[in-house]
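Before relying on records like the one below, remember that each one covers exactly one chain. Contacts with other chains, cofactors or solvent are not represented anywhere in the record.
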Amino acid sequence: MLSSQKRRVVVTGIGIVSPLGLTRETTWSNILEGKSGIEKITLFDATECSVHIAGEVKNFDATRPLAEPLYPRGKEHAPLTHAVMPKEAKRMDRFIHLALNAAVEAYQDSGLDHYRDQFSPTTIGVNIGVGMGGLPLIEETHNTLRDKGFKRITPFFIPQVIPNLAAGHTSIMLNTQNTNYCSVSACASSAHAIGESYRIIQRGDSDLMIAGGAESVVCALGVGGFAAMRALSTRNEEPHRASRPWDEGRDGFVLGEGSAVLILEEMEFAKKRGAKIYGEIVGYGATSDAFHITQPLEDGSGGYRAMEIALKESGLAPTEISYINAHGTSTPLGDVQEARAVAKLFPDSKNLHVSSTKSMTGHLLGAAGAIESAFSLLAIRDSVVPPTINLDKLDPDCAATGIDFTANRAVKKPVAAAMSNSFGFGGTNVSLVFKKWNKT
């Protein structure tokens, strides 16, 4: 399986569970319509907190049965009938529930289940990036310890909450026996997971990777912690209008939760089985600011270098990038610095649209890079750029860049190639480039 040449990598499956829907197509439809998934918090009592809003996944039943059974271990073994079996649900925190449902949708979408007898489980791996892990259950278990003592701590506590168990459960569920790990790099976690999975296939260490991210920390500690940093929007009376990247009135990001998972395949393998191909991954750039734990470099040069590296590897000219799904969190500092970095790398931006889908989903933290990569691929598939909603009055510093931030309405246009940016605490930066797959 090892090769001295870099192999090409395509995306053949996408699964999404988000504040805008429980499936890929429902979420994407709501994104294109410019709907917001931000509402009042229901997962805990936020009355005493300064922040009362978040992007929660609504009406989510982790244990709902699959429409059709899957056979990742072959027809001679018992089928997979649920992403999360009801008797197992209490042994996992919510971020794992979200990850498993997104992973199953991506796996179903890829059609791989029909070909499991044609490849060994040792050729497929998993990397599900998670930024914070099972914070809600850590909070709950601490309260149990405080109120009832050590003997009331469940023996399932540790595997309920450690970040890599999203990948671990996915590997067990879908019978993958190659790489199994979890990228943890704050808000860049799942972008790193996709990028590193791309590298694994490129160099021949695996033929297929299940890559993405999951996050669910809408709890008192999660919201309270970010609120204490003054990082979150307090536009509590207008939840749908609270996340407003590049707008002059932005006052912080909105916390979201969810999961997105991609199926990555070596191109020749995908072609041989006649797979549906969303697009090809052609560039991955990863850098560090080496500056500050929460603030980006003032000139945005860390993010700029990540974009530059990814663009160079792609072999594309700047003018060939049709769309950038920006990190665009709706924070006063980060939005301007990213805009300046984009303008520097793409000085001739006549064909370029930039948008932040966080205006609709909120910020999914460790899952952000995965869901935004999925949106980039769907933009390529459908020849449409999703909007940045709530962009009513463009920040003058952002306006000075001359960038089209795709305000409030989706734009129909050919999208030959797209870039997705993810930046995180600790000064970590990731850019991924996807392009339309050319059968020739």
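The CA atoms of residues 417 and 435 lie 4 Å apart.
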